[in-house]
Amino acid sequence: MPKILIADDEPGMRVLLCQTFEDIEENGVKLLTADNGKETLEIIKTKKPELVILDIMMPGMSGYEICDTVKNVLGMKGIYILMLTAKAQESDKQKGRDVSVDSYMTKPFDLDEIVEKAVEVLGIKP
Protein backbone atom coordinates (compact mmCIF):
# COMPACT_ATOMS: atom_id res chain seq x y z
CA MET A 1 0.00 0.00 0.00
CA PRO A 2 1.60 3.31 -1.06
CA LYS A 3 1.99 5.92 1.66
CA ILE A 4 2.04 9.72 1.66
CA LEU A 5 3.40 11.60 4.66
CA ILE A 6 2.09 15.14 5.12
CA ALA A 7 4.52 16.98 7.40
CA ASP A 8 3.46 20.49 8.38
CA ASP A 9 3.20 22.20 11.76
CA GLU A 10 0.00 24.01 10.74
CA PRO A 11 -3.06 21.84 11.57
CA GLY A 12 -5.16 23.57 8.90
CA MET A 13 -2.62 22.72 6.21
CA ARG A 14 -2.54 19.05 7.24
CA VAL A 15 -6.36 18.89 7.15
CA LEU A 16 -6.51 20.63 3.76
CA LEU A 17 -3.98 18.24 2.23
CA CYS A 18 -5.65 15.17 3.74
CA GLN A 19 -8.97 16.29 2.26
CA THR A 20 -7.26 16.94 -1.07
CA PHE A 21 -5.99 13.35 -1.17
CA GLU A 22 -9.35 11.73 -0.26
CA ASP A 23 -9.91 10.47 -3.83
CA ILE A 24 -6.56 8.74 -4.12
CA GLU A 25 -6.85 7.49 -0.56
CA GLU A 26 -9.88 5.51 -1.75
CA ASN A 27 -7.51 3.83 -4.25
CA GLY A 28 -5.49 2.27 -1.44
CA VAL A 29 -3.11 5.10 -0.53
CA LYS A 30 -2.43 5.50 3.18
CA LEU A 31 -2.05 9.03 4.55
CA LEU A 32 0.31 9.73 7.43
CA THR A 33 0.77 13.07 9.17
CA ALA A 34 3.40 14.72 11.33
CA ASP A 35 3.52 18.15 12.99
CA ASN A 36 7.21 18.49 13.84
CA GLY A 37 10.58 17.66 12.39
CA LYS A 38 11.61 14.86 14.74
CA GLU A 39 8.30 13.02 14.32
CA THR A 40 8.57 13.44 10.54
CA LEU A 41 12.02 11.88 10.44
CA GLU A 42 10.93 9.00 12.68
CA ILE A 43 7.92 8.24 10.46
CA ILE A 44 10.10 8.35 7.34
CA LYS A 45 12.59 5.92 8.90
CA THR A 46 9.98 3.47 10.20
CA LYS A 47 7.07 3.66 7.72
CA LYS A 48 9.07 4.54 4.57
CA PRO A 49 6.43 6.58 2.72
CA GLU A 50 6.91 6.81 -1.04
CA LEU A 51 6.01 10.53 -1.00
CA VAL A 52 6.68 13.15 1.67
CA ILE A 53 5.03 16.55 1.44
CA LEU A 54 7.31 18.60 3.64
CA ASP A 55 7.14 22.11 5.07
CA ILE A 56 10.43 23.90 5.70
CA MET A 57 9.62 25.77 8.88
CA MET A 58 8.77 23.19 11.54
CA PRO A 59 9.66 22.83 15.21
CA GLY A 60 12.43 20.45 16.21
CA MET A 61 14.04 20.10 12.80
CA SER A 62 13.62 22.07 9.59
CA GLY A 63 12.44 20.55 6.34
CA TYR A 64 15.91 21.18 4.92
CA GLU A 65 17.51 19.19 7.77
CA ILE A 66 14.99 16.36 7.33
CA CYS A 67 15.57 16.17 3.58
CA ASP A 68 19.35 16.27 3.97
CA THR A 69 19.21 13.50 6.59
CA VAL A 70 16.87 11.29 4.55
CA LYS A 71 18.56 11.70 1.17
CA ASN A 72 22.22 12.32 1.95
CA VAL A 73 22.88 10.81 5.38
CA LEU A 74 20.54 7.80 5.39
CA GLY A 75 20.69 7.37 1.59
CA MET A 76 16.93 6.86 1.25
CA LYS A 77 16.87 7.97 -2.39
CA GLY A 78 13.62 6.12 -3.17
CA ILE A 79 11.55 8.50 -1.06
CA TYR A 80 10.23 11.42 -3.11
CA ILE A 81 10.29 14.69 -1.17
CA LEU A 82 8.05 17.53 -2.27
CA MET A 83 8.90 20.70 -0.39
CA LEU A 84 5.72 22.75 0.09
CA THR A 85 6.53 26.09 1.64
CA ALA A 86 5.93 29.82 1.83
CA LYS A 87 9.68 30.38 1.29
CA ALA A 88 9.72 31.46 -2.35
CA GLN A 89 13.11 33.16 -2.72
CA GLU A 90 15.53 31.70 -5.24
CA SER A 91 18.03 31.20 -2.39
CA ASP A 92 15.45 29.04 -0.58
CA LYS A 93 14.89 26.94 -3.69
CA GLN A 94 18.65 26.57 -4.14
CA LYS A 95 18.99 25.40 -0.55
CA GLY A 96 16.32 22.80 -1.34
CA ARG A 97 18.30 21.61 -4.36
CA ASP A 98 21.44 21.49 -2.20
CA VAL A 99 19.78 18.98 0.16
CA SER A 100 18.36 16.89 -2.74
CA VAL A 101 14.69 17.95 -2.64
CA ASP A 102 12.90 16.26 -5.54
CA SER A 103 10.34 19.00 -6.12
CA TYR A 104 9.67 22.46 -4.68
CA MET A 105 6.26 24.20 -4.60
CA THR A 106 5.48 27.50 -2.96
CA LYS A 107 2.35 28.57 -1.09
CA PRO A 108 -0.20 29.49 -2.26
CA PHE A 109 -0.31 26.40 -4.43
CA ASP A 110 -2.69 24.61 -6.79
CA LEU A 111 -4.27 21.59 -5.08
CA ASP A 112 -4.79 19.85 -8.42
CA GLU A 113 -1.07 20.18 -9.16
CA ILE A 114 -0.22 18.46 -5.86
CA VAL A 115 -2.63 15.61 -6.59
CA GLU A 116 -1.17 15.23 -10.09
CA LYS A 117 2.34 15.05 -8.65
CA ALA A 118 1.25 12.44 -6.08
CA VAL A 119 -0.43 10.32 -8.75
CA GLU A 120 2.71 10.57 -10.90
CA VAL A 121 5.11 9.72 -8.06
CA LEU A 122 3.01 6.83 -6.75
CA GLY A 123 2.16 5.52 -10.22
CA ILE A 124 -1.57 5.26 -9.49
CA LYS A 125 -4.75 6.24 -11.27
CA PRO A 126 -6.85 8.93 -9.57
Automatic annotation (TrEMBL):
- One short Pfam name that applies is Response_reg
Which InterPro entries does this entry report, sorted A to Z?
Bact_response_regulator, CheY-like_superfamily, Sig_transdc_resp-reg_receiver
A single GO BP term for this record reads: phosphorelay signal transduction system
Q: Which SUPFAM superfamilies match?
A: CheY-like
Query: Which keywords accompany this UniProt record?
Result: Phosphoprotein
Question: Taking every annotated instance into account, which residue ranges of this chain make up the domain Response regulatory?
Answer: 3-122
Asked if the record carries the keyword RNA-binding, the reply is no
Q: Would the keyword Phosphoprotein be found if you checked this record's keyword annotation?
A: yes
Quote the protein name from its UniProt record: Response regulatory domain-containing protein
Species this chain originates from: Candidatus Scalindua rubra
Tell me the lineage of the source organism. Bacteria, Pseudomonadati, Planctomycetota, Candidatus Brocadiia, Candidatus Brocadiales
